[in-house]
Q: What sequence folds into this?
């Protein structure tokens, strides 16, 4: 199984499942804050536009109200000729400071009174258009006199007592008051309020540098004047992207425009966006780290479960092999036992036939008889072990299992230059165990001991009963090279081995440990690697739970 691929899939799935909702939440939060910021900007711009609208409307109403008073004075007795217009207009100019010129026209447009030459100037006809229609009139903004400052013409009709039109009183009004007031109404660094005419030309200056009747808003925006009642985004006269709000004045002849650069308006939101992005990055990093840690734990759990399953399969196969070998060993032992019995019988017959005549031959036959008996003893042990292999769990004598196993292994140990000593306590309590499995445990430990003594040494096997612990303890000690301290925690791990590739699978001690654990016991190990130490070598202690004694001294 490719556990690396499983880990990648788990990490990817976990990150996607957690990051997608999180990113959606961040996006939703950003949209909400963006909408809130736009609403806030819209409220500010609408307030500016309304404030400018009231300012312009109030200013123009005041001027019209002034001229209405003059027009009313001209209709009262004595008539127009008796009214000192010059004195009245002078007082108005001094008191208000907003008037540049005054004039009076007859119903046909002739000049009845003028302080300057305005009504007869080259631009007068267009500015006075609509003044003689019987209503109050405010002209477009124009650049007045040599000073070239913005001004408008305001006219009011003069009527007789019967309501007949008798003339028009008008004034050139300085528009710089409106210009200055609007430029002071801005917000922030780039928020501004200004007026434009129907053609898109500025009729008040802007705080950011637009000039009256010289600069104009983009043509595309001029075509849309009056069509929008809400805040929208566009490129202004400077080429900057701004939030914009437009409102019509004077029946759509003038438009008040409130704008603010998007960069400044959305500045606080940009800072919040940076915070959100930073928080999102930190959170995503934490999620990825958590995903890696969790997926690794899951993969390790799966890997252990997979290995455990494989190991169980291996143990089952080993047990089946042991059972098969037990049957094979029993068959071979039976086959060998018969010729050995015949050989022993004929050897004894020959000894009796020789009598005392040939003592040398009889002595040789005694040696043959002893070797045959030894062979029979070996066959007997093989038969006993094969029966144990087939028997399964039972109450067994650990000392008996050790004795039989040592009888078989001692010749092999001597052949490798290893002396064997045994110290098996008599009368050990029995243990509940699988004799074949226990034999395999001891065999694996002894085989490792032989491998640790390639140049010969000493192998000591001892068993004892610890009543306090209620255990049978078997110590198998060798005088080999020892196990390094860093390897001891891993010697019972599956597939751990220090031997060359192909010499061992690293499962012997693992299987031995698992089998002893299933019997309710444990295996402990102590090792010394210092060549100068007298206790150099390794000792494996196999601990098995002893059967409790029943009342009266019998076994439970």
A:
């Amino acid at each position: 199984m490719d556990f690396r691929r499983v880990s990648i899939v788990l990490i990817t799935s976990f990150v996607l499942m957690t990051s997608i909702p999180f990113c959606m939440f961040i996006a939703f939060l950003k949209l909400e804050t963006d909408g809130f910021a736009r609403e806030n900007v819209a409220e500010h711009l609408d307030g500016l536009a309304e404030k400018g609208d009231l300012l312009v409307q109030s200013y123009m109403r005041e001027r019209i109200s002034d001229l209405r008073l003059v027009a009313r004075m001209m209709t009262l007795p004595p008539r127009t000729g008796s009214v000192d217009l010059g004195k009245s207009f002078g007082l108005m100019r001094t008191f208000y400071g907003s008037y540049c010129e005054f004039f009076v026209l007859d119903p046909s447009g002739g000049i009845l009174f003028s302080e300057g030459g305005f009504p007869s100037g080259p631009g007068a006809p267009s500015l006075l258009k609509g003044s003689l229609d019987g209503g109050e009139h405010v002209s477009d903004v124009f650049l007045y006199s040599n000073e070239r400052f913005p001004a408008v013409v305001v006219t009011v009709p003069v009527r007789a007592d019967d309501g007949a039109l008798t003339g028009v009183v008008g004034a050139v009004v300085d528009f710089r008051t409106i210009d200055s007031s609007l430029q002071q109404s801005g917000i922030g660094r780039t928020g501004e309020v200004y007026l434009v005419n129907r053609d898109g030309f500025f009729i008040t200056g802007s705080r950011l540098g637009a000039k009256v009747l010289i600069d104009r808003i983009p043509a595309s925006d001029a075509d849309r004047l009056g069509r929008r009642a809400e805040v929208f985004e566009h490129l202004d006269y400077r080429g900057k992207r701004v939030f914009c709000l437009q409102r019509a004045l004077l029946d759509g002849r003038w438009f008040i425009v409130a704008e603010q650069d998007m960069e400044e308006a959305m500045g606080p939101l940009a800072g919040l966006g940076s915070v959100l992005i930073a928080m999102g990055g930190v959170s995503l990093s934490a999620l990825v780290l958590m995903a890696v840690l969790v997926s690794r734990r899951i993969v390790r759990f799966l890997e252990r479960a997979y290995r455990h399953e494989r190991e169980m399969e291996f143990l089952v196969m080993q047990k089946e092999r042991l059972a098969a070998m037990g049957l094979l060993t029993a068959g071979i032992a039976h086959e060998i036992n018969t010729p050995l019995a015949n050989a022993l019988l004929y050897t004894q017959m020959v000894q009796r036939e020789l009598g005392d005549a040939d003592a040398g031959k009889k002595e040789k036959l005694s040696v043959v008889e002893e070797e045959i008996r030894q062979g029979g003893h070996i066959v007997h042990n093989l038969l006993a072990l094969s029966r144990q292999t087939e028997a399964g769990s039972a109450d067994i004598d650990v000392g008996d299992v050790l004795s039989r196993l040592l009888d078989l292994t001692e010749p092999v140990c001597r052949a490798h230059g290893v002396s064997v000593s045994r110290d098996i306590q008599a009368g050990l309590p029995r243990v509940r165990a699988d004799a074949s499995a226990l034999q395999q445990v001891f065999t694996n430990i002894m085989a490792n001991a032989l491998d640790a003594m390639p140049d010969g040494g000493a192998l000591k096997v001892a068993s004892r009963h610890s009543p306090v612990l209620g255990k049978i303890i078997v110590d198998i000690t060798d005088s080999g090279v020892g196990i390094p301290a860093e390897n001891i925690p891993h010697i019972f791990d599956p597939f751990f081995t220090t031997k060359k590739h192909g010499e061992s699978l690293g499962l012997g001690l693992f299987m031995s440990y698992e089998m002893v654990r299933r019997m309710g016991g444990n295996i402990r190990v102590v090792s010394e690697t210092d060549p100068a130490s007298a206790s150099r070598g390794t000792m494996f202690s196999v601990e098995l739970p002893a059967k409790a004694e029943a009342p009266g001294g019998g076994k439970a």
